[in-house]
Amino acid sequence: MTKETFAADAVKIAMERFQSGQIDRRTLLTALGALGLVAVARPGVSYAQAKEVVLCNWGGAAVEAFQKAYGEPFTKKSGIKVAIDGAGPTTGAVRAMVESKAVIWDTTDGGMVDGVVLGKGGFLEPIDYTMVDKSKVGPTGAAEFGVANYAFANVLAYDVSKVGATPPTSWADFFDTEKYPGKRTMCKWIQGQLEPVLIADGVKREDLYPLDVDRAFKKLEPLLPQLIFWEGGAQSQQLFRDGEVVMGNIWHTRANLLKKEAPERFTWTWNENVLFWSAWSVPKGNPAGKLVFEFINSSLDPEGQITLLRLMGNGPSNPAAQAVMTAEDKAVDPASPENTKNNIAISTDYYADNEAELQNKFLDFIAT
Amino acid sequence: MRPFDRWAVGLTVPAVLLTTLFYVLPIAQVLVLSVTEPAPGLANYEQLLGSRAVARVVMTTLEVSLWTTALTIAASYVVAYALVQMRPSVRRVALFMVLVPFWISVLVRAFSWITILRREGLVNLAVTGLGIVDEPLQLVHNRTGVIIGMVHYMMPFAVLLIYANLAGIDRRIMQAGRSLGARPMTVFWKLWVPLSAPGIAVATLFVFIFSLGFLITPTLLGAGRTVMVAEYISVQITNTLRWGVATGLSTMLLVAVGFVVFIAMRQPALRAAFSGRQG
Questions:
Q1: Residue A23 in this model has a pLDDT that exceeds 50
Q2: CB distance from B56 to chain A under 8 Å?
């Protein structure tokens, strides 16, 4: 299994709401690219014609959602077509494409950490802030190799029917197996997993980084027999539906879907949620060149971002969107002030330096 | 060589070219990456051999593969033995049922097993409903679930391999045994089993080697608690970008499999199986 990123999962959520998108030639080419066959398939095929921006996200119907939220507004303004390729810009895929000098994507929908890691490796173009308006994103949203496109969060979700009269309100409750017997779920991918553990162990949020990994493991070890690890959002949702778990650390979009499905049975708390920013990055040698930054700049306008929030639950990265949002919008947006009051902001720098090592340690730790 | 043989050999040239171009060369590329990435040298192998985590992943892989092999062979032998005893009309239906799982994707099968084995799944509802156990059994999201899923995946292969062998055994030998006064159990243990050694050997080797490389089944049914080599490699390729480590581990897996095959081929039962002779 490849790692399913949040973005990949957002795609699946959208798929449940849209007709599935079709595979076009570009998708095929990308798939070939990921296999390193682009060099063979390349001659005689002209992809990325002039006046076109190719965006890579996680496939299927998010092609449609992103087209509505980001593509159409840009095309209306500029006349430039936005082609959306759903092949999935894993760091591995971006690296393979840049190394084989067969780049077909202009921008990719990855994480802030991916931007730093790939940027350090020399696989990305720096974001051109003469063309992208920094003021459209929050202070942490404009990095050298990535600019925030939406927010998502890891939240404590629970099954109301299984937690009794006083539902859990904090990560400390996640560890209280006497008060809340039953299995829990956490994500197998490390980002955002140890922070709740340390918070539950009494670490103050300002002292979280660098993570005290040994302390976190020590706290988590007794809970291991009670844990099921999810690796894709759909799976996390299924664990709740099936009654396998009583509570879990899952993406807010999935918690939101669970609640929509069964409002009496499922809900979540925003307390101590872990906030992430997803980001646009630009692979080195992208076919559209500087043009892509015009698109990126346009994608940061509030209207399109609110469209995406309503379609898939992803929180706008432009703070100006807050003024236009309804109370209903804000209730599911992890970046709205009400929901960030008591949250944990993920440290991009920390993960950029430590994720690979930490991920392997974590896999080793959770495996029996 | 007669002209006909020469033609026959010539006809394999396109296949050889295709295999070389799309199979041998990419694998060679992988082998090369393991000694050049991120820097030339054997650092990746040093790291792999010195890593406690990798050792644990390898041990898990071996344990799971051995359990899978043992259970698959035992269960498949029963099915294959039943198949050869059946009337042809019944056997056609039974063989069809053995083959059905082949047409179902490994993903679908893994999810189906989760549905059957989970806490509130079919099996647990049955055993708790009948009062056999008080607490639901933990059948999935752990090693037990992984092994169940893998055995199910491997059984059709093993059944067919063993069945092909059993079907070719000269049944007059059993008649001779019975006429000399052997009881059915004696006939089974002293005649059927030894005569089917080549089939068992081939199936064992096949199932074991195949098991070493399982990815989707352990990932889904193990839910993070059972990490096997293929998943570890996959994480290093797509997540951590440690391609050198990933290709190094792939190379080691390849060499290990080659070694197992080499050792196995020295066994008389396997040599017999591949030379087409019985017993």
A1: no
A2: yes
